[in-house]
Amino acid sequence: MPTAILAFNTNNQLAIRRAGSSAQLAFTGGDLPETLARLEAVFQAHTGPRAAFTTGDGLHVHLAQVTGEPVDRDIHFASIDSLQSAPDAPDPVLAGVLAQLDPHLIAIPYLHLGENDFIYKFRPDKERNSRIYQLDDNARALYQSQLCSAIKALSRANERTASAPVPLDFGAVRYLIPSHFGFCLGVKNAIERAYETLAENPGRRVFMLSELIHNPYVNEDLRRRGLRYLQTDKGQPIGTGDGRQLWDVLTPDDIVIIPAFGATDDDKRRLVRKGIPVLQYDATCMLVEKVWKAARAFGREGFTIIIHGKHEHEETKATFSNARRHAPALIVRNLAEARILTDIIQGDSGDSSVLAAAREKFAATFAGKHTPGFDITRDLQRVAVVNQTTLLMNETLAIIEHLRSAYAAKYGSVEAAARVGGNAKRDTLCYATQVNQDALSRALAEPLDAAIVIGGKNSSNTYQLYRLCEQTLGPRAFFIQSERNIRSLDAIEHYHFPAHGPRVTVAPFDNTEIKTLPRPSAPGQPLRILITGGASCPDGIIQQVVAKINSLLPAQTIRPIDAVLGDLERHDKPA
Known about the structure:
The protein is of the alpha/beta class. The strands form 6 sheets. Strands 1, 4, 5, 6 and 7 form a 5-stranded mixed β-sheet that branches. The protein has a 5-stranded mixed β-sheet with strand order 9-10-23-18-19, with helices on both faces. A hairpin with a 2-residue loop joins strand 2 and strand 3 (22-25). The radius of gyration is 27 Å and the shape is globular. The N and C termini lie far apart (67 Å).
């Protein structure tokens, strides 16, 4: 069987053989062993060849990744875009292979990984790069906090388990800090990768696919150091100012970092085609990748993938892109949309007029949120739920239970168990998101005058924390980005999350309302304020919020920070 091995380097550039002005396949033979022997004569280090496709002429094409320089002077590396854009460069056989390669591009950067391997694992604490938080005064103010470090040392016996909140007694004001708050491990990984990449590549252009995390101060600090963004957090390309997009001017010498949210297959294919390294700068959170693996497993078992998420969010876009490789997929935003979906499922009853109405409702409700050709009579027979990791656990569980109830009503409880997939071993809820929510719930059980949640105004997980506070404290809950939003105790700029119903806008602050911090519930009592931060909130900002509120109270009523730190050092670890 005639065989070709497409050998790519770690920059996703293809090894080709130059014959005059023409480019040819570098490694071909009568069968796979012969072709592999020719590859090994040029590259000692390579992955095992992976079968990809067969051309119309019967050529069996395999993919491999090689390292090192070729020993054959006629072998050169070229990006796929450069080969296809150069007039008359590829010979007919190579041109035919490249024409069929596009669906397989996504696999090329990860050829050395097994199905159960993760792109980038969390670093253990001893391998964390703490120096990136000490680059200069700006970085230290943003990322470092004596208070937060002391709280974490005191309260975090286990990263996955919430414990009792920690009080900070400043005299006139008493803060309550949940045991878990702020940066999750996925965010720490992504931030360290970004700063390290900038430091290791002076003189090279370094881009981020989109916002590293949903925090404007982190993103701005990276931008100040030279990082540029290819597109907005909604996937809109950013221009160069001369009518072109930054995407259009990327070259193989450029670096593009993939953020913790992950990336769509389309974006990764574009990078591969340009011959830009992907794996080396892929900072996808392994808990997001865990969701992708669960979707793949469900798809192989014949389930349609229901993604509980916001269709406009980068993470959900990436999860949808991955899921659609393995099964029909559909994005459901919340329990209300899940109820509409189960109404549609009930409408698939065999009555043509009822079925037509169900199809119309599906088209109207889920436009742009499903895979092409989605058929409600075929693709809703068996479903399994995965989720956007930043949402509330209880909402995902409520959607799953609602689907189970609806399928039980239609098919009976025994059959419904086989039609709605999922079990504890395939839990796709992010433990970091969940433990922050659990820790906050424990803190909200205490007597409080107010709660302040800190994070980027477009941060989904921060908004979920705010929602928990709002459910308990109503208007005494605040959503802010930093201490800059606290103008006075009577003028705090409270953000309304983009997806949150009617908005109150107070000029000149976009999408905010001015709220007043309540006074103590009893005269002479300290003000009791819960403070927490979303998964993209640096510790330094949390301490700056504490300092700002303290500065607005009479100085003689506020204990010095050293005294509060001394309290923490003497405090026994909570049970």
